[in-house]
Amino acid sequence: MTQREVWDAYDAEGNKLGFDLYRDEADKIPFGAYHIVVEIYTVTKDNEVLTTRRHPDKGWGLKWEITDGSALKGETPEQGALRELREETGVVVKAEDLRLVYSLYSRDENALYYCYLAIIDKANQTFRLQEGETVDYRFLPYTEFKAFVHTEKYAPPVRERFLAHEELFDRMILFRAK
After folding, report:
1. Residue 56: inside a domain
2. By the number of CB atoms within 10 A of the CB, which of 28, 70, 83, 143 ranks highest?
3. What pLDDT is stored for residue 162 in this prediction?
4. Is 86 inside any structural domain?
5. Which domain holds residue 34?
6. Confidence label for 176 from pLDDT (cuts 50, 70 and 90)
7. Burial of 95 (0-12, 13-18, 19+ CB in 10 A)
């Protein structure tokens, strides 16, 4: 028997509401309640962006994206980001290695998004894909990544959030101190 994925319920300002939400009942989330979704842009010291390909059985199957997922009950956004990155890619970073790019809420998805940037040394990481989640990975130089986001091969909802914050990503990736 598979264990249900449980999330904490939050209001639009990120305050816990004191009850649980369940992935398998996402269509029943009450109005005004949200769960935390984390996105992690993993970038090498040479400005290459880690992209992963979604499992064919998932929504947006075989589309490419960055690492993302829901924070589980009891996790902070940072803890959820560290776990998702480790589970889906094998990449291990510390909380202090995460830089918040933006946060926002989506009424349509009942989600509070926390988007992070993690700079890694590719040579010091072991990459491993999570069965049932990711089927491939690759690194793209940031300028190529920006062009790739515009193709039909990239997951549309992730594309929309990236494009809405593209200037911020440019500043954080291209103009960061090396």
Report:
1. yes
2. 70
3. 97
4. yes
5. 6-174
6. confident
7. exposed
User: Would you state the pLDDT for residue 177?
Assistant: 52
Torsion-angle region of residue 98: left (phi > 0), alpha (psi -120 to 50) or beta? Answer: beta
- Comparing CA positions, the residue from 84, 91, 110, 98 lying closest to residue 172 is 98
Percentage helix, strand, coil, to 5, in the chain? Answer: 30, 35, 35
Contact predicate 59/135, CB 8 Å: no
Q: How many domains does the chain have?
A: 1
pLDDT tens digit sequence for 9-33: 999 999 999 999 999 998 899 999 9
- Asked if the structure places residue 1 within a domain, the reply is no
User: Is the pLDDT reported for residue 1 higher than 80?
Assistant: no
Determine, yes or no, domain membership for 33.
yes
